[in-house]
Amino acid sequence: MYRYSEFDTAFVRERAAQFRAQVARRLDGSLTEDEFKPLRLMNGLYLQLHAYMLRVAIPYGTLSGAQMRQLAMIARRWDKGYGHFTTRQNVQFNWPRLEDVPDMLGALADVGMHAIQTSGNTIRNVTADHFAGAAADEIADPRPYAELLRQWSTDHPEFQFLPRKFKIAVTGAEADRAVIRAHDIGLQLVERDGARGFRVLIGGGLGRTPMIGKVVRAFLPEADLLPYVEAIVSVYNLLGRRDNKYKARIKITVHETGIDEMRRRIEARFAEIRPEFTGIDREILAGIAAQFAPPDWVARDPAPFHAARAADPVFRAWADTNVAPHRRDDHAIVSVSLKTPGATPGDATAAQMEILADLAAAHAYDELRISHEQNVVLPHVPRAALPKLHAALKAAGLGAANIGLVSDIIACPGMDYCALATARSIPVAQEIATRFEALRLEHEIGPLKIKISGCINACGHHHVGHIGILGLDRAGVENYQITLGGSGAEDAVIGTRSGPGFAYDEIVPAIERLLLAYLALREGPDETFLMAWRRVGLAPFKAALYGPHDTAERADAA
Amino acid sequence: MSVIVTDRGFGPDHWRGGFKRPEEPGAGPGIAVALDLGPDTDPETLRDRLDDVVLIRVRFPGFADGRGFTIARALRRMGFAGRLRAAGHVIADQYAMARRSGFDEVEIDADLAARQPEPQWRARADWRAGDYRARLRG
Questions:
Q1: Which residues of B touch A238 (CB under 8 A)?
Q2: How far apart are the first and last CA of chain A?
Q3: What is the ipTM of this complex?
Q4: Could you read off the pLDDT of B11-58 as tens digits, one per residue?
């Protein structure tokens, strides 16, 4: 894992000191409220519905046990004893006091963490495949490149006041677990003629105008990464619209300019910028990559895993659902669900964080990940240790066997926290999860991604949910629209709206009808919801949602 | 009265030559001119016209509009070696960004200079320290 250099440490300390001074200069009037706002945002500090919120970056989703313990300490000391993991591999503290924030930033710096550029019109936290370095299917670990991009983008002098926020995701595998097609820049490691490079996509994004990213360069030699990304953001900084914040993301620039003209401009800018990079970045990358060397694998006979799987149906259900193949046969990747039915998706208490840190130390080489699906991943676990690990998780209330199933729902904070929200998200997620737990249909239904956003800004990624739920405000009443057939994976597609929305107390029964219809029409358990949708299309699901007869009538009324 | 901020702190504006818009004709071969650029300038249009230019002022209509930083870098990349000035609503917190992007100085009005006095700008005169991008570029 990456450890801060002296440069990194000095930087985050200096940055925390600068923010402390900015808070003081706001209070003495040197900075107006308008001027202070982007400065606090680029240090991760939002003003939410009830209080400030501090969003802390977990670069490429990777954490050590010590870092997780420090998050627990911060949650206890300066918040209400919990944190919320987000879809962009950040953790949010919802109740800090402004005057405590510089001390919180100092506590983060103590363990090589920060909240820099987790908000504002800046290049945000660079995210990566949460299975990076462990997955059986990747070309190479994408995290050294993500760390290189983190360093390059941090306090980049040209790019602190972009037209709008800018998000980069990177993956090393064809299977897209990082939603790269819904990012401003998506990077996929590929190989061509034995050389390593990137497929580069631009212009993806969700929000009120969802777009799937387009390929701007099919193969970029990896040595050209920084100058090429700099060229993209440089072109965007001058060309992106500043007259309307809803049309300011690069997806709109690409849409209005055309991908071919964007490519022409980017390639021309790249040709100018390329000579500025003398090759030092390659040496720094090599130093970073060395720190991501795999742990010293402990070879252990996986017999205890097979014995437990044969003997214990609860363990078997968990192992079949939450455990993924590792690059080594005698190891596994464990996803710890933060979606126990009834819980707030993505929330973890300080005690749970500490337990996870302890379990990472005991069984998983002291490494943890945060997934964009708001769960915690232990990326390297010897299979022999799985029964003990499962028992400990179960005892801590973290044993839910639901990864990738109905109740593993992405939900934004919604109206319970967010100033932008138009509807509640968390209670809808909780009620869907508890309903299907009561029906005992979750494992029968199989792989399914439900994603819920509490407003049109789409933080809950509803457009790319197999089932997406969008909460809106209709004349003061919550109304939930359903989209079907979306995907955020390598087959990314924006979902299709089913028709008129549903009231708060109608939405969970509507989802139930939808899934019962799926079970009735599927060709067998191997045909997932998404596969069935692609085979049969909207009509049978629409009938299940609205009834065969009054569909037209309700559509007219909408 | 405008204030010119450099690494040494506040000073007066010594330039007396006036400014031209880029679309205006030059003063004649060999005669020094200064250009005034809006934030929507495409720096590419200036590529072959910088020979007699000794000073370029780039306007910042608001501190949240960061186009000027990219314009400055583009001008430096195309070889402009004269004086480069950021002018308008640029705050002390952006001084290091301006210097790292290639500006030599920042021009602010008296009100801003009173609200953000010299020590707040001098605090970032160490702009060469802690610069990730410069470190990666070599």
A1: 42, 67, 70-71
A2: 53
A3: 0.97
A4: 999 999 999 998 887 777 778 899 999 999 999 999 888 888 999 999
